[in-house]
Amino acid sequence: MSDLSSDPATDAFVAHRNLLFTVAYEILGSAVDAEDVPQETWLRWSKVDLDQVRDQRAYLIRITTRQSLNRLRTMQRRREAYVGPWLPEPLLTAPDAAEDVELAESVSMAMMLVLETLTPTERAVFVLREAFGVSYDDIAAAVDKNPAAVRQIAHRARQHVEARRPRSVVSPNEGRAAFEAFQRAVEASDLKALLDVLAPDVVLVSDGGGLKLTALRPIVGAEKAIRMFVGSVQKVGGTLTTEPTVVNGNPALLFRCDGKLDGVVALRIEDAHVTGMHYVRNPDKLSRLESETALTLR
Fold it and tell me: pTM of the full predicted structure?
């Protein structure tokens, strides 16, 4: 039996596997679906004549993008029947992922939600160009468009995202302070302290998938968000504990009921206040919060 580790195709694939998962996840927003894409990529990559490949990274990303777009169109049909708001599947990431500002922003729950408002092709083009620095020519090959069309799509998608992404860049210290204030207020059930840390126009989006109690539409406004959030937390029953962690490269708060994971809330922080709360309780989306997922843009 030959040693697979000495096979150039295998070596290239293994070296880029975490990258390919990250590409698929940013395009799909679903770790469950993204997990299958690298395997599909390998099946096609193993048949490629490497002598004809100019850039192995770009070629692997091209295959991954095509497989992801195929899945995304199928997933969109499933989401039409989804109960309540749909949030991306949260991933437990290494604490140092937050130090990679570019990675932390590109996979944050806030950015992933913005990406949901793009068409499949716009999303793929934006992700490949802005997050992974893929050339327009290589993106064109991945999405079956000519480079001129890809430039136009990229420009349109960039304008769309810029209009919806966080309005101000928050320093790590400011973000940490706001998060810790939110955590203390939640643990103490201090409604006044929660009101102080939430922006007046905060938006709470909660995802229970019809399996757990959550709001069936986004809640706008600090007082309404507090009533809904605190109310759903208090109705969990049992002994509720909180645990700070890093999800999608950003601070988040895990909720456990009698030791069992019940949900996670990721925060969007601007100007030292929480402007967005992304609360995932759907048990089908919590499986990637018990062990770290390695993400990379390179």
Answer: 0.91
